[in-house]
Amino acid sequence: MARKLAGRVVIATHNPGKLKEMRELLSPHGVEAVAASELGLAEPEETGSSFAENARIKAVAAARAAKLPAFADDSGLVVEALGGAPGIHSARWAGPDRNFGRAMRVIGEKLKGQGATDPARRRAAFVAALCLAWPDGHMEEFEGRVDGTIADAPRGSEGFGYDPIFLPDGFTRTFGEMSAEEKHGLPPRGQGLSHRARAFRKLAVACLA
Which of these is catalytic: 73, 74, 152, 163? Predict the structure, then answer.
């Protein structure tokens, strides 16, 4: 039986885009969300070899420091032709200045260098691992994935990160061309399309009223 979450939870991220999405996902459930940055919590070094391990590191560190349940996400873009890169290093590809425009150009150049011009050779997925940790060490973990292709060029200014180059299967618009509600709104408002929304739906069924 999964442990239920109620009251206050720390969102263990310093990424404004992720923080906004997580708050929007949690708000219908009557859970008060406070950001790790608002509590002055340091960002732990992400030394894991998978999305799940890095989410666990962040959630556990925040839960222990704040003495509250903590909710962390680790996610990224996995490009098949690049051997799964950028993967867990998705944020690092953008550099300390978080220049995802540059990171997207690098992906485009690498794919072009491999002659990956048709959609079949530009397959990719967004993956999100969520970890909900309590100060006593209890954890609940979930994962979500959405498959798609890398667009020929960035399109749209919505979302954040690599959204403008990711074209989810079954759609003609990139994540960067979709509104927040389209991308991660949960039923009945949206389809729960994004990787983070898909992982969150599993968490909500298990841990939220």
Answer: 74
